[in-house]
Amino acid sequence: MLICWWLWRRRNVFLFEGKRISKHAILASVEAIWRSLHDAHSRFSQSFGQECVTSKLVAQWQTPPEGWVKVNIDGAFSHFVSGVACGGVVRDTHGNFIKGFLFKGLEGDCLSAKLWGCLHGLKLSWDLGYRNVILESDSADVVDLLRREMNDLHADRNIIAEIHSLMRRDWRLDVRLISRWANTAADYLAKAGFSAMAGFHTVVSPDAELYSLLVKDNG
After folding, report:
1. Rounded to two decimals, what is the model's pTM?
2. What are the boundaries of each domain within the chain?
3. Mind listing the pLDDT tens digit for each residue in 63-104?
4. Which fold has domain 69-218?
5. CA gap 219, 217 in Å, rounded
């Protein structure tokens, strides 16, 4: 059924947008959906009658250890807005805002938006000179993709390959899964990316709303 739906979507995208979706992209997407359903079923089976696995994630943002910085990232996707967006925040061991970013891309989906966030968050942290970095995302799929070997047929293989290349640089990097309630600052910047011009933008100082989220995190 998934393959039939993708073939139908491939036809419509070609007819109405003039774009082609490759067979490899379709197979990779079907595989990713099947894997997600399988993992979800496994987690449900293991946790039946117990607390949901995701409920064990800490709901409050936590400062990184001494000598480390933490970059939180998130992505945004909407069927009603052209393109995708992502954003992120770099903070020090005291929770102080160092720098933020937002990025607006021309095409993609929810997963690719979050992967763009990882890529730009890591690039920004490296360019700022930090070599002890914790990268946090509220997407289990993203964290899983970053922690294991890349599937060459994955639809986002180019972004994933670039992220893996960054991760192999000479630094200490810890990739963590967090609750979305501990990721509100990055979520705010990701959604703000829809209002930005296409491309990458740094945030030197937080606006009032972002500042309030940062204060809440440190509370």
Report:
1. 0.74
2. 2-52, 69-218
3. 999 999 999 999 998 877 778 999 999 999 999 999 999 999
4. Nucleotidyltransferase; domain 5 (3.30.420)
5. 5
